[in-house]
Specification:
The protein is α+β, with helices and mostly antiparallel strands. The strands form four sheets. It has a six-stranded antiparallel β-sheet. Strands 1-2 form a two-stranded antiparallel ribbon. A two-stranded parallel ribbon has the order 3-10.
Length: about 270
């Protein structure tokens, strides 16, 4: 199980920038387990900051369990036994993978309520102004380590068919289908954001840590919006992949998504 990182970044904007930069390099493997970091003076020159600033950033990394600092032997990256391999999700086959993930991971329900749909949700789902929706927030984990923070909005007329307990124990896709919803398609967008205090605490990461931000609108066979999902994912635990294939001739030859092909399969 991963050791949760500090809930707060080191004091000072420059120290935070150094901390996040080194943390990202450790998370994506650019700084490998067992690798020695440059001396503090060298790091200060590389980042254009003082040694005091570097020391603050290294202290935070040490408390997060990402490095080991030993007098006389320098600073070493330490990730062995702490970080699982990130879950890889293929964008071309994302929906069935998410259903499978819902069955093979655990969810903790943080909040559950009914209320008027926020304007951005009402617009996306094409609901009437102030129409009631069920709002549920969950943290999904694998092997006890949280990797996603999910908030879903479902029209109350649909959500009335399942309980709060059902939502805590059963993937939402299954609950919607058991409620008689015939899902046809969905539109997803992926961007990036930073973790605020509440999200950081829920995911066991530092405030200001980078996150993948996913927005999904699910529709039924009649074109009605049945779910709006706002998901935040830890990039050190979750990544999106897309296989590509070369198509066309001559100057028009280009890359296109290889729809339906699993990661690693060549076109």
């Amino acid at each position: 199980m991963n050791k949760p990182a500090k809930s707060l970044l080191p004091e000072g904007a420059k120290a935070r920038q150094v901390y996040l930069s080194l943390r990202d390099q450790i998370a994506d493997g650019r700084l490998e387990d067992g690798k020695n970091l440059p001396p503090e003076q060298k790091l200060a020159e590389l980042f254009g900051v003082s040694r005091v600033t570097i020391r603050k950033a290294l202290d935070a990394l040490s408390e997060a369990g990402l490095i080991v600092r030993r007098a006389g032997s320098g600073t070493t990256v330490r990730t062995s036994g702490q970080r699982e391999k990130p879950m890889a999700m293929n964008l071309a086959t994302l929906m069935p993978q998410l259903v499978e993930m819902g069955q093979n991971t655990t969810a903790r329900l943080l909040s559950f309520s009914y209320g008027p749909a926020p304007e951005f949700v009402a617009g996306a789902l094409r609901l009437e102004t102030k129409e009631q929706v069920q709002i549920a927030t969950r943290v999904r984990s694998t092997d006890g380590t949280p990797f996603s923070h999910l908030t879903t909005y479902v029209p109350a007329s649909i959500a009335a068919n399942y309980s709060e307990n059902d939502l805590a124990t059963t993937p939402l896709f299954k609950l919607l289908e058991l409620s008689g919803v015939q899902i046809k398609d969905a539109h997803q967008s992926v961007s990036a954001t930073l973790a605020g205090p509440d999200i950081a605490e829920a995911l066991g990461i530092a405030v200001g840590s980078p996150l993948l931000s996913l927005r999904r609108v699910v529709k039924d066979v009649n074109g009605n919006g049945v779910e709006y999902l706002s998901g935040l994912y830890r990039p050190d635990m979750f990544r999106l992949e897309m296989p590509l294939t070369r198509v066309g001739d001559g100057n028009t030859r280009h890359w296109e998504p290889a729809i339906g092909k699993p990661p690693g399969e060549s076109a």
